[in-house]
Structure formats: structure tokens, C-alpha cells
Specification:
The complex is a heterodimer of chains A (508) and B (331). Chain A is α/β, with parallel strands linked by helices and 508 residues long. Chain A folds into 2 domains: 243 residues, Rossmann fold (3-Layer(aba) Sandwich); 244 residues, P-loop containing nucleotide triphosphate hydrolases (Rossmann fold), CATH 3.40.50. Chain A has 18 helices and 21 strands. Chain A has a 6-stranded mixed β-sheet with strand order 6-7-8-3-9-10, sandwiched between helices. A 6-stranded mixed β-sheet of chain A has the order 15-18-19-13-20-21, sandwiched between helices. Chain A has a 4-stranded antiparallel β-sheet with strand order 2-1-4-5, with helices on one face. In chain A, α6 links the parallel β7 and β8. With 331 residues, chain B is mainly α. Chain B has one domain: ABC transporter involved in vitamin B12 uptake, BtuC (Orthogonal Bundle). Helices cover 73% and strands 2% of the residues of chain B. Chain B has a two-stranded antiparallel ribbon with strand order 1-4. Chain B has a two-stranded antiparallel ribbon with strand order 2-3. In chain B, α3 packs antiparallel against α13. Chain B is globular and about 60 Å long. The chains are: A alpha/beta (508), B mainly alpha (331). Chains A and B meet through α2 and α4 of A and α8, α9 and α10 of B. The complex binds adenosine-5'-triphosphate and magnesium ion. Magnesium ion binds next to α1 of chain A.
């Protein structure tokens, strides 16, 4: 059978640093094909070579059996390849319609854009994903999840023969992922191939036919997914023995095993904000991880924002041990020993053109000063230590952070907060976009700090991470905190039931 | 589902809040002028006001396109000076030669800007600074640093004097055509939307498969062409090619664009509001002239500039306040 896409012997270096050394990819028409691999394995680079964002140094690419002439993303689209890039490639300042239709706008008889038809068509496309929003509004005014769905909707609407999704589910909740999967299945029925990159191995078993495994810029295997086990995939991806991985356990957070939590660090009482928090109460003590459970829009991120002083309180109060008064601004929060790793690393986290070192020590600089000067030696030591302990894959601490793979950028941000030695750390999706190996490492590191007395407020849309990682889980719904589950003893089913139960009650 | 067919003033205002301030101020100034001065609203004042400001308007709308991509064009004033000399030299052959000649000269310099910025990847600020100096030098060289009188016997003089269809001077009609044409380009074509997308995120636009190169070439060439047209108006308005004119025009153009609510970083902008911004800037002078004419106070040209600067600042602050309150209302 002829392959839709054949890439073989692909090589690519960036300024002397090898990103791909011998990568292969074979996609059959109409199949759902996955690529897995650790952060920095070269997955995104490989697809960017396919779509003409980067030029390959060596290797062959054929599309439908003929050598590919694609050298720009536009040519890739014209050749039937639609792509959702990992770093959402949309224009937040422009309207939803423009972002979906850009380059393919319906025309009037006079050759001008038919806006009425464009809005209508956009609404129809989004309907398929169960989204009903004002398509004339700025895209940037919607949540990351909606933006991600818009990006997917755009790609799917291009009538491609191949749709590439580079970690497209990273900010979606279960329900939205289900919608995405049904769209993927529909595409498959229509004979459209899908290339699916994800760190969630469970997802692969639900929709993928075959999987290509990458490690350190090389393709190390191609498997039929139904003939593999999760453990087998992980071991091939990491290049380690299955037994070794099994022994390490699934989650490194190890919630509920801890003995006594310490004194109270943080108390929020009946807080509400203009952003949709209605009535949330929670406490956080020394040496414990408190999880926030709930669906998208239940107020998890909003709670974090309020606790960090980003949104003013309409009512209620927050007492932070360590600060005399209330927390009203992020600066006051940081002074009181509170750190916040945001979920939207691109917009709120990284400074793209600055180096790994600068990004890591940005918040720390005041502490690194001796007599008004930054102590470069101490800074360097500290950065080196974190690069090593978190296993950050970079060519050096002076490399601009935007050149790092997605998961490695996330690790730098985590290091930024850990370096501050906070008393309270709010982690909003700390392991999003991080590979299974690194996820385990990050979770172990967090637990290490927690054992030393750090209090962590954990937000995660992965139920597994919450259930296995948190000592207690506060369940939120529509801006209210409704119940609290205590580990040990919490199961995923129990958490889902707690969220769903209250949801049904609300619907009834 | 939202009812999108019925016209809803509140929604409209909220959707256009970025330029609300400039319109309010413009209307307020006009009302003020009409009430305070006798001949302010007369056809003579309106016609000569528009005739004089036509060149600033076309430069500003060209600049608006460049700024919407996140770029800048500092060469517009020098280009206008250069093409005014070109137009004066071509005036004996009539308007049918002088107009295309001046515009072509502007387009060519714009093309040079595009080459520097797009092909050689020189930052727009530096690239257009270089052509600004180059065009200025060019204007002085070809004119011998003298004003070049136009040929008064040719039909070139009709441009500013004769009324098209007996209503408005040709200058104003041509300006209106340019403005409407560019408005259509921005609002109704894919190319126009690409210009905005580039300003909102150039990398993202490339990855969406938009033709970024073409759009960026377009804006610089367009801005050059607009400046070329302005040079033609300059020669016709003053009866001579003016190699020494155009100093600081790029800054007034940028001011017109910004006061109209267009983001200097690109991604958002409006042609109509830019025109309003240019009119507003001209109107301040117009009103100060009338005020001088009343004989109570007498402000020198220098003081007028100070006042215009202060006024501009006030409008920009007002503009951003209006925009942010209108925005709060939406959510
Ligand atoms: N533009 C660039 N300049 C320099 N190095 C780069 C660039 N893009 C990628 N790299 C490097 O190439 C390697 C592969 O990166 P890539 O983004 O393809 O990884 P990935 O498999 O997609 O990882 P992740 O799962 O974290 O998204 C990394 O080491 C990265 O630092
Ligand atoms: Mg990637």
C-alpha cells in the first residue's frame, strides 16, 4: 500500500545542536497515527519539517509517493496538510471568525470578503465542536481551551488529507477531549489521516491505529497500538527496562502517605470575585498538597488567581500566615511567600527571547543581590543545580527559552518558583505538556519540597494526578466549593462522582 | 443565537471603542468652531481646509497600513518632498503625466523600503530612516535645492483649483477615492486581513499559511505610493515642487494613526479613525487661525504647535479612557 506521508532519514540541527538525527515517519491514508517521545525528542521539529516551517538538513519526504516540494506552511496546507501547532498559532487580537477563516474567506461576487457568510460558516464549524460563542469577538477574550478548540476547528475545516495535532488536548477537559475524539473518528471515516502527538498514553489507545516512538532525535520504533502495552511504550520511549519503571510507581506525588500536616499556612474564607468565584473556602497547611477538583469553568484557576492577589475580592477574606495584612496584589503574595505557576505559560510565564538563566532567576534577582549587584556566581550555581535536578534539556543556560521544547519550558518555570523557596506554591497544571518520565521527576521534586514543609495547592485536569497526588481535594463547581475529599481513600470514581453528582443536582 | 442583523448602537459602539474618543472630539471641535466663528462652516473654509489637509490624510492612511503590521515608515515626508519636485518637473506634460509620475516615484521608494525590510530583514525603523535621508538628498539634488515652479499653463493647475463635477476640488475627490479604496482593501479583502494578522502575530500568521511576505511588501509600497500622491498635492497646492518641505510629516502621520486608536504595535487599526485623526490634527490649526483672526489673541506658529501637541496628548488619554470603560461594559 502506498503511504500518504513518508519521511525517512531526516536530519536537522539548530546552530550545531542536533534535534533530529535519523527520524522516519510513515503515515497511511486514513489512519490515526501517534508520535510519542520525551520532551525534546524532536516530535514538533519533525512535523515542522513536514509542514515547511523548518528546512531539513538531510533526508527524504514524499507525499502520496511523489517527492514533497513543500517549503512553506502555506504550501503544506495547499498539499492537504492542516496543522495545529503546539504553540497555538492564532492571532488573539483578531476575531474568532478571522482566525478560523483567515486565508480562506468566502467571497462575494466582487471578490471582496463576504463577512456574513464568513461568520455563518464559522458558527457552523464551531458547532461541530459544541461551541456557541460570539464569533465576532476577539479570540483573545476567550479561555485557552476555547482558543485551542478554535485552532482545531480551523485545521479540520481546511478539507485536508492529513490533520496534524501537536499536543492539541493539553488544555482541554475530558468532555472536550471526547468531542475532539468523535471528530477524529469522523475524519477517519471520511478517509482523512490524523497525526496525533500527545503525552497522554491512555488517549492513544482510544483513537490511534499506529504509533511512532522517538527518542533523542531518532525513530526507535513503529508499533500497531493494539499490540502494545502502556508499559512497553514507556520503556521504549525512555530507553529503560520495564521492571525499573514499574518499580518506580505511577505517580511521584504520593498523596496521603504523609503523616501529620503542620500548622496552617493559608486560609480562604467565603471568597468571591468579579471573575466568577461565588463562595470558596479552603485551608492549606504546612507539608500538604491540596488539590482543586472540578470541571473547566468551575473556578479552579479563578481561585488560584484570587489567592495570588491577581483578582480583587468582592467578599470574604484570605489570611496568609506570614503576611500581616491581606493579600491584595501579586507582590504582596510573593512577599508573603506565595508562588503561582500559571497554566498559560506562553502568555503569563516565559519571556521568550530571554535565556533559560534569566527566565529562571527573574523573580529571584532581589535575593541574589549583594551590595546592589547581582551575584553571578551564585546565580550560575543555582541555575546549574536546577537544570540538573529537573533534567532540563538545553544546550546551555544562555539558550533563549523559546528554543526549548514545550515540556522543558515548563520545567524552567517550575524551577523559577522553587528557587524562591516559597511557603505556598500554587501549581496550575504543573505537568501539562510534560512527558511521562519528566512528569514523574517533577512530581517527585514537588513531593520532596512538600516533605520539607512546602504547602502546595494543585490544579490538574488529570484526575489521576489529583487522586494519587493530593492529600485533600477540594471540589469546586460553578464558583462554589462544595465538598472536600480526604486521602487516603479517594478513588478516581469517587472524585468523578463528587463532581458529577453535584453537577446533576445543579442541572435538576 | 445572537440576532446579528438588527443594528444595535450599543454593540456597535463597544465593537469600535478603540476609535470612539477621536470621533467624539472631532465632532465636539466642529460644533465648537461652527458656533464660535462666523465663516467656519462656510463652503470656502471647508473646501480649502480639506484641500490643504488632503496630503496629510493620504500619508496617514498609508502609514496606518504599515503600523498595522507592526512596522513604521519614517520616509513619507521626504518622499513627498521628492515627488513634489518630480510632479513640478512633469507638470508641463499635464496632469495625466504628472500624477502617475509622482505616484510611481513614491511607489518605487516604497518598493525600496519593502526590499530592505522584507528581503534584507532590516528593522523598519532603520530601513525607512535610511530612505528618509536618501529621498531628502534626492529631492535636493534633482531640484538644486530650489523650489521648482509648476507650469501654470498646463492642466496641472486644475488639480487644486477646478472642481470635479462642479462640487469639490479634484484633490479632495482623489483623496476620497484613495481613502475608500484603502478602506475596502482593509475591511473587505483577504490581503487587508493578513495585514492585521501580521501585526497581531507574525509567526502565527506564517504558520496559518498566510502570505506574509506579500502583505508586508504591499504596505511599504502602498505607503510610498500614498506619500507620492501627497507630493503631487503639495506641488499643486503651493504651485511649486518643494524639496525642503515634509520635515516632521511622518510624525504627524503617526500621530493621526495613533489618535485614531490604532495600536502602534500592530494588529488593530482603522482607516476611518485615521482619517478622523488627521482631520482632528488639521482642525486644531484651523481653529487657532480663526481664533487669531478674531484679533483678541495672537498665537505664533510655534505656540500653535505647542498647543496642538498638548491637545493631541489630551485626546490620546481621553481615547484610551473611553476605550477601557466601553470595554468593561461588554464583559
Ligand atoms: N528553533 C529552535 N532553535 C534551537 N533549538 C531548537 C529549536 N526548536 C527546537 N529545538 C531543539 O530541538 C530539540 C527537539 O525539540 P522539539 O520541540 O521537537 O521537541 P518535542 O519532542 O516536541 O518536545 P515536547 O514534548 O516538549 O514538545 C530540543 O532539544 C529543542 O531544544
Ligand atoms: Mg513539541
Amino acid at each position: 500500500m502506498q503511504h500518504l506521508i513518508e519521511m525517512s532519514g531526516i536530519k536537522k540541527s539548530f546552530a550545531g545542536v542536533v534535534a533530529l538525527q535519523n527520524a522516519n515517519l510513515h503515515i497511511a491514508p486514513g489512519e490515526v497515527h501517534a508520535i510519542i517521545g520525551q520532551n525534546g525528542a524532536g516530535k514538533s521539529t519533525l512535523i515542522k519539517i513536514l509542514t515547511g516551517v523548518y528546512r531539513r538538513d538531510a533526508g527524504e519526504v514524499t507525499i502520496n509517493g511523489t517527492p514533497s516540494t513543500v517549503s512553506t506552511p502555506r504550501e503544506a496546507q495547499d498539499a492537504g496538510i492542516a496543522t495545529i501547532y503546539q504553540e497555538l498559532s492564532l492571532v488573539p487580537l483578531r476575531s474568532v471568525t478571522e482566525n478560523v477563516m483567515m486565508g480562506y474567506e468566502p467571497r462575494t461576487r466582487f471578490g471582496t470578503i463576504d463577512w456574513k457568510a464568513a461568520h455563518k460558516r464559522t458558527r457552523e464549524i464551531l458547532e461541530r465542536f459544541g461551541i456557541d460563542i460570539d464569533v465576532k469577538a476577539q479570540l483573545g477574550s476567550y479561555s485557552t481551551a476555547i482558543q485551542q478548540l478554535v485552532a482545531i476547528a480551523r485545521a479540520v475545516s481546511l478539507n485536508a488529507q492529513l490533520v496534524i495535532m501537536d499536543e492539541a488536548t493539553s488544555s482541554l477537559d475530558d468532555q472536550e477531549i471526547e468531542i475532539l475524539f468523535s471528530v477524529v473518528r469522523e475524519l477517519k471515516k471520511e478517509g482523512v489521516a490524523v497525526l496525533y502527538i500527545s503525552h497522554f498514553l491512555d488517549e492513544l489507545y482510544q483513537i490511534c491505529d499506529r504509533v511512532t516512538i522517538m527518542r533523542d532525535g531518532q525513530t526507535v520504533g513503529q508499533r500497531v497500538i493494539s499490540e502494545t502495552t502502556k508499559l512497553g511504550l514507556i520503556s521504549e520511549m525512555l530507553g529503560r527496562d520495564p521492571e525499573e519503571i514499574e518499580a518506580a510507581g505511577m505517580t511521584g506525588l504520593g498523596g496521603g502517605e504523609k503523616a501529620e500536616p503542620g500548622s496552617s499556612l493559608f486560609e480562604a474564607e467565603n471568597i468571591s470575585t468579579a471573575r466568577g468565584l461565588k463562595d470558596v473556602s479552603l485551608t492549606l497547611r504546612k507539608g500538604e498538597i491540596v488539590g482543586l477538583g472540578g470541571l473547566l469553568g468551575s473556578g479552579r484557576t479563578e481561585t488560584a488567581r484570587a489567592l495570588f492577589g491577581l483578582d480583587g475580592l468582592k467578599s470574604g477574606k484570605i489570611d496568609a500566615h506570614g503576611s500581616s495584612g491581606q493579600i491584595g496584589t501579586p507582590a504582596e503574595a510573593i512577599a508573603a511567600g506565595v508562588g503561582f505557576l500559571t497554566e498559560d505559560r506562553k502568555r503569563e510565564g516565559i519571556v521568550p527571547h530571554m535565556s533559560v538563566r534569566e527566565n529562571m532567576t527573574l523573580a529571584l534577582l532581589p535575593k541574589l543581590k549583594t551590595m546592589g549587584m547581582v551575584d553571578r556566581k551564585r546565580e550560575t550555581e543555582l541555575v546549574e543545580r536546577f537544570i540538573k535536578s529537573l533534567g532540563i534539556k538545553t544546550s546551555g543556560m544562555e539558550q533563549p527559552i523559546r528554543e526549548l521544547s514545550g515540556g522543558n519550558q515548563q520545567k524552567v518555570l517550575l524551577a523559577r518558583w522553587l528557587a524562591l523557596e516559597p511557603e505556598v506554591l500554587i501549581l496550575d497544571e504543573p505537568t501539562r505538556g510534560v512527558d511521562v518520565g519528566a512528569k514523574f521527576e517533577i512530581q517527585s521534586i514537588i513531593r520532596e519540597y512538600v516533605d520539607k514543609g512546602l504547602g502546595v495547592l494543585l490544579i490538574s485536569s488529570e484526575f489521576e494526578e489529583l487522586v494519587e497526588g493530593a492529600d485533600r481535594i477540594v471540589v469546586l463547581r460553578d464558583g462554589f466549593s462544595i465538598t472536600e475529599l480526604e486521602n487516603p481513600g479517594v478513588t478516581e470514581e469517587a472524585l468523578i462522582a463528587a463532581i458529577a453528582h453535584h453537577h446533576e443536582e445543579a442541572a435538576a | 443565537m445572537l440576532d446579528t442583523t438588527a443594528f444595535d448602537l450599543r454593540r456597535y459602539i463597544q465593537g469600535n471603542n478603540h476609535s470612539l474618543g477621536v470621533w467624539i472630539t472631532l465632532i465636539a471641535l466642529i460644533v465648537f468652531g461652527v458656533m464660535r466663528y462666523d465663516n467656519f462652516g462656510g463652503s470656502y473654509n471647508i473646501s480649502s481646509f480639506l484641500n490643504y489637509n488632503a496630503m496629510f490624510i493620504v500619508i496617514a492612511v498609508g502609514m496606518c497600513f504599515v503600523i498595522m503590521t507592526g512596522g513604521i515608515d519614517l520616509s513619507v515626508g521626504s518622499v513627498a518632498a521628492f515627488t513634489s519636485v518630480v510632479a513640478a518637473y512633469l507638470s508641463p506634460y499635464g496632469i495625466q503625466v504628472a500624477l502617475p509620475g509622482a505616484v510611481a516615484a513614491g511607489l518605487a521608494i516604497g518598493g525600496l523600503n519593502a526590499f530592505f525590510v522584507v528581503a534584507m530583514r532590516i528593522p523598519p525603523f532603520i530601513a525607512t530612516l535610511a530612505t528618509m535621508l536618501g529621498a531628502k538628498g534626492g529631492a535636493l539634488v534633482i531640484s538644486g535645492a530650489q523650489t521648482i515652479s509648476i507650469d501654470w499653463t498646463s492642466n496641472f493647475t486644475k488639480l487644486g483649483l477646478e472642481k470635479a463635477f462642479g462640487i469639490l476640488p479634484w484633490t479632495i475627490v482623489i483623496t476620497a477615492i484613495v481613502v475608500v479604496g484603502l478602506w475596502v482593501l482593509l475591511e473587505k479583502t483577504s490581503l487587508g486581513r493578513t495585514v492585521l494578522a501580521i501585526g497581531g502575530g507574525e509567526d502565527a500568521s506564517v504558520m496559518m499559511g498566510l502570505n506574509v511576505t506579500r502583505a508586508k511588501v504591499l504596505v511599504y509600497v502602498l505607503s510610498g505610493g500614498c506619500a507620492g500622491m501627497a507630493g503631487l498635492f503639495l506641488a499643486s497646492g503651493f504651485g511649486a515642487g518643494q524639496p525642503l518641505e515634509g520635515v516632521g510629516w511622518e510624525l504627524s502621520a503617526i500621530a493621526s494613526v495613533v489618535v485614531g486608536g490604532t495600536l502602534l504595535t500592530g494588529g488593530m487599526g482603522s482607516i476611518s479613525a485615521t482619517v478622523a485623526g488627521a482631520l482632528l490634527l488639521g482642525l486644531v490649526f484651523n481653529i487657532l487661525n480663526f481664533e487669531n483672526g478674531r484679533g483678541v489673541i495672537s498665537l505664533s506658529a510655534y505656540w500653535q504647535m505647542v498647543i496642538r501637541g498638548a491637545f493631541l496628548f489630551a485626546v490620546i488619554v481621553f481615547q484610551s479612557r473611553v476605550a477601557s470603560t466601553a470595554k468593561k461594559g461588554t464583559i
